[in-house]
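Quick one - inputs below.
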Amino acid sequence: MDPIHQFQIVNLFPLGKLGASEIAFTNSAAFMLLAVVLLTGFLVLGTAGGRAVPTRLQSAAELTYEFVADMLRSTAGHEGMRFFPFVFTIFMFVLVLNLFGLIPFAFTVTSHVIITAALALTVFFTVLGYGLIRHGFHFFNLFVPKGVPIYILPMIVAIEILSFVSRPISHSVRLFANMLAGHIALKVFAGFIILLGGALGAIGWAGGVLPFAMIVALTALEALVAFLQAYVFAILTCIYLNDAIHPGH
Amino acid sequence: MADGAQDEGERKQPPDDEAQLSARLQRLGERLANASRPSENGSGPRQTADMSGFARGFRLSSELVAGVLVGAGLGWLLDRWLGTTPWGLMLLGLLGFAAGVLNVMRAAGVVDERRLKD
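Output:
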């Protein structure tokens, strides 16, 4: 009945201790591991044949490749393709974790802000590190728009820097909040059925058809959101990487 | 695998020559124009992404909130370190708000980057 209960982290078995804090294998880690195994299996099996006329699995693997490659090429250009493994990993990982969340009783890893923040910060520091290594001091041109009068330049630079620093926050919060809100909504509507049936008996159970219809609709919406948020997360990664590659843009 | 070969070729060029960079930028602009053309009249993946108004609205609001939060947070930290309460929070909060608005305008595609920066 408690709509928050589904997000509880449960320790499955302990792995050891790091300082004072216990390191344990949690349900979150289990689902991440499952996602990695599933994805690896999917891609290894999908690309094992290498047929000219692809099998269904090979076709699916090629589709995912094409999809991410197109997305990366259209936002970051051909040079962005060196980040293809990175973007592909992030997209598929988030997508599979989001879709796992739709399975009843499964744990939604991406509904925890710590996971999405870790991913977003990885992207942020990749952009920062690669931009600095590749362009050196020129990378800071990113914060200095051309053609701005000198007397408002300090303020513009401050705004640009804040805008840059705020990226990992909006990047991570968007994914996490979407998953969290959607799953809470599902649980709340499911709770209505139980409440109606418990309070009104037979009439209540009959009335429960209405929230149940809502759950069906919401589940379809959630499937869309799961894909869309993985896509948005990946395309923002591409846009940010584009800044690292072409900072003067 | 053609991508990989081309990628290698571009990597070998010596970086950071201003003229070369602008030439590269121009090439990117052309490629971008070519790449975005089919998705404008066709039904590319971008169309499906823009379809959900909820997702779009959520993206814009989170951009604004992130800007304000980062500005105010940084201001608060600076105040704690330098003892300049309340000036850092006020100033950086306002700048953060401006950054949030800039984020929103960028995300919505209102700001034409090329016209602003060239």
